[in-house]
């Protein structure tokens, strides 16, 4: 990753570690609520390429009742480019995890990622200043958290998304 | 060859129903009884050589035949997961789509001949499975050759999908068909426009645009984009023949600038669509490596780059890749998780994304954009030509008068323009393209290819038949795909299966036909499951009621010999097509020969599919 000051302004602000860490936290939190376990570490790298990709967000179902496996099978065009997007976002994800852990938004628990101690009030996802797009990113991240809690084993999920660590 | 041998009522025949259910069957056909009462989930583990797919389905509650709960798991070195991990994570429809794509069935559509009312049919895993199963009532049937052929509408469906599975229909066919439809649509449009040009009373939008822009260039009407046709005509009518001296210098640059800006926009769209098409093709080619060993590496999962390049690096942080002086426990744990998951995924293939429909859409969009680009270019050319004319004419007043005159003339008659030879050229080119595509899609060619494939399979059948003592062994055998039956061509004319006598012939020809079909499927790597299940092939000679602990020595010599030859043929073909092919035989017979007993995987005498312990 380039030092913060050398990054193109647009990239630096769109993928800034605070926002990314909060997205990860949203996924981890939903996952924790549904599965009662930390989010397995490799799966954390699915969050940003999923939630920050506009075409993916637009194709998402309204509720988590649609199963992830079913949705994946129905959207080959989004899955096809996912591996490449995930690879490009890996550094950003690492940075967001480090940042999130440093500020206790996230916590490393065993071989997974869990919600950190810090309580954030008001909930960042509900801020009135959020743009429509930011709101959609949080919603996507939460949906992924629910999905990953019931999607199957880590290898199954990763192979359906077409990625490996 | 894997043999499941055993006594009656031990659940042997239910294996076929369980496999059918776990491969996306809408209903569970497992017969009511011990299995239905004491089993909660059915599971099947598929071995794809480098990867495993595990599918489990919940046994429907008593009195019902449907259950929505399906668990799917994939991975390298996969074993059946623990019972408590089974939860619903996929739907029936998605499972069917997943297995269809995992099997390598590309998008395909059987188009229905004109005049018939049934829906076009797309072959999927459910159809592929029809060629892999033979239950005990089918294998000795004189009327039915394939699994489920006796059900309503199934014979037609089998006939529709068979050309695809045999490989008589090119994988490119769907794409070509859509290109052809597109070209035909375009041709109709061009021809229609051609006809309109001849009709004096028809108003051509592009002619109005031309004259409007000409009027703009002459300064007779205000600048800006051309308004809708009615409004444009009203403006033109208001121009009138009188020429106002005060009109400003003609400005051709302004409309030209607009057109050029538009062209840049269209070009950018075109480049984007082309890029999307290229990407789609690239992904398809890379991921579609099931046809092409060279791309095998590319077909692997895309690594995100979480693992450090050299896993033996002693103390680099799994999180950031930087060196650590003392290892942090959780970082170590993460590294081991990553390596474990990475190892499990090492050999997993990327599922082939089914992108052909996407490409069809993209190609249609590309065609539309290209048409817009051509239209834009034509308008620019016209305008540039007129600009040249302006320069050559010295009197601006005369020019405007001339334009006003042309407007008046246009409004009065709205006639067809002089013949445009370029358009004729486009028409010709399009007709040629349609001709070439139609030839590639010639149904005769599919028929010819099919005939040749059926001949090859017939030759395999005749060859294998020498090793069984059947009524027509040694004569020319063939698969008649119009009647879905085996036919023996004898000197007295063709004899179809249903006119042959005796159960041993019926079983024998079922076995021959399926072995030969699968030999073809494997040679051509067709997307049909690489397994074949025969339920009770010995029944003509060794019926269940004569079963005595699987011992065939109680039979007469001729019967014993026939049973031996049939199993030997199955074993030999299984060996011939292995690795990568499995024949599962379910039978009472239990031969003593080593090649037979070595292949027995289950012997249910006292034991059964449902262990006695579960019942008590």
Automatic annotation (TrEMBL), chain A:
Protein origin, superkingdom: Bacteria
Record-linked InterPro entries: ABC-3C_MC3
Pfam family membership, one: MC3
Name of the protein in question: Three component ABC system middle component
Automatic annotation (TrEMBL), chain B:
Alphabetized InterPro entries for the sequence: DUF3732, P-loop_NTPase
Any coiled-coil regions, as ranges: 173-200, 256-286, 331-375
Pfam family for this entry, one: DUF3732
Keywords from the named record: Coiled coil
Protein name: DUF3732 domain-containing protein
């Amino acid at each position: 990753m380039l030092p913060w000051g050398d990054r193109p302004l647009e990239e630096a602000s769109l993928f800034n570690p605070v926002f990314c860490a909060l997205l990860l936290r949203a996924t981890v939190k939903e996952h924790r609520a549904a599965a009662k376990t930390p989010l397995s570490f490799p799966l954390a790298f699915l969050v940003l390429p999923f939630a920050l990709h506009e075409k993916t967000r637009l194709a998402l179902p309204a509720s988590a009742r649609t199963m992830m496996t079913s949705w994946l099978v129905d959207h080959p065009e989004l899955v096809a480019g996912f591996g490449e997007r995930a690879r490009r976002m890996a550094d950003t994800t690492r940075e967001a995890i480090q940042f999130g852990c440093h500020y206790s938004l996230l916590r490393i628990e065993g071989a997974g990622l869990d919600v950190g101690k810090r309580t954030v009030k008001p909930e960042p996802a509900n801020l009135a200043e959020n743009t429509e797009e930011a709101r959609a990113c949080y919603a996507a991240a939460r949906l992924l958290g629910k999905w990953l809690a019931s999607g199957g084993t880590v290898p199954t999920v990763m192979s359906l998304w077409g990625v490996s660590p | 060859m894997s043999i499941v041998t055993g006594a009656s009522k031990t659940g042997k025949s239910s294996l076929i129903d369980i496999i059918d259910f776990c491969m996306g069957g809408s209903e569970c056909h497992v017969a009511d009884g011990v299995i239905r009462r004491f089993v909660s989930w059915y599971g099947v583990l598929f071995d794809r050589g480098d990867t495993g797919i595990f599918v489990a389905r919940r046994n429907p509650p008593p009195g019902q035949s449907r259950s929505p709960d399906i668990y799917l798991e994939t991975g390298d070195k996969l074993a059946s997961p623990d019972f408590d991990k089974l939860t619903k994570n996929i739907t029936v429809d998605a499972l069917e789509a997943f297995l269809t794509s995992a099997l390598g069935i590309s998008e395909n559509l059987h188009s229905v001949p004109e005049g018939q009312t049934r829906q076009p049919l797309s072959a999927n895993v459910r159809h592929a499975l029809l060629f892999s199963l033979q239950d005990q009532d089918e294998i000795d049937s004189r009327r039915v050759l394939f699994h489920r052929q006796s059900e309503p509408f199934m014979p037609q469906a089998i006939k529709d999908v068979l050309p695809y599975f045999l490989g008589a229909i090119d994988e490119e066919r769907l794409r070509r068909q859509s290109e052809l439809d597109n070209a035909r649509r375009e041709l109709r449009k061009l021809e229609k426009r051609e006809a309109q040009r001849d009709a004096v009373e028809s108003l051509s939008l592009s002619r109005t645009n031309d004259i409007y822009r000409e009027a703009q260039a002459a300064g007779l009407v205000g600048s800006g984009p051309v308004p809708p046709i009615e409004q444009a005509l009203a403006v033109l009518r208001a121009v009138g023949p009188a020429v106002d001296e005060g009109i400003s210098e003609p400005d051709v640059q302004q409309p030209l600038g607009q057109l050029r800006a538009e062209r840049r926009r269209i070009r950018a769209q075109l480049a984007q669509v082309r890029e999307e098409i290229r990407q789609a093709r690239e992904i398809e080619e890379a991921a579609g490596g099931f046809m092409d060993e060279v791309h095998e590496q590319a077909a692997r999962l895309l690594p995100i780059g979480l693992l450090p390049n050299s896993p033996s690096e002693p103390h680099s942080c799994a999180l950031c890749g930087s060196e650590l002086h003392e290892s942090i426990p959780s970082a170590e744990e993460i590294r081991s998780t990553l390596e474990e998951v990475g190892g499990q995924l090492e050999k997993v293939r990327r599922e082939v994304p089914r992108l052909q429909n996407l490409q069809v859409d993209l190609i249609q969009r590309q065609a539309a954009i290209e048409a817009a680009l051509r239209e834009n270019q034509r308008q620019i050319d016209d305008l540039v030509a007129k600009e040249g004319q302006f320069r050559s004419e010295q009197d601006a007043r005369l020019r405007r008068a001339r334009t006003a005159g042309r407007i008046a003339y246009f409004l009065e008659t709205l006639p067809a323009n002089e013949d445009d030879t370029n358009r004729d050229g486009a028409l010709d080119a399009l007709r040629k393209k349609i001709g070439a595509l139609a030839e590639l899609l010639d149904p005769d060619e599919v028929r010819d290819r099919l005939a040749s494939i059926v001949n090859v399979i017939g030759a395999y059948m005749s060859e294998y038949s020498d090793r069984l003592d059947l009524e027509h062994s040694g004569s020319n055998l063939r698969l008649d795909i119009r009647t879905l039956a085996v036919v023996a061509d004898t000197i007295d004319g063709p004899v179809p299966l249903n006119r042959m006598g005796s159960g041993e012939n019926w079983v024998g020809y079922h076995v021959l036909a399926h072995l030969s079909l699968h030999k073809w499927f494997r040679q051509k790597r067709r997307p049909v499951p690489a397994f074949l299940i025969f339920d009770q092939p010995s029944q003509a000679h060794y019926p269940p009621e004569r079963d005595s602990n699987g011992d065939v020595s109680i039979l007469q010599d001729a019967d014993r010999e026939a049973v031996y030859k049939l199993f030997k043929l199955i074993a030999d073909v299984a060996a011939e097509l292995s690795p990568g092919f499995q024949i599962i035989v379910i039978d009472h017979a239990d031969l003593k020969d080593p090649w037979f007993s070595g292949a027995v995987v289950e012997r249910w005498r006292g034991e059964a599919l449902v262990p006695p312990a579960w019942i008590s």
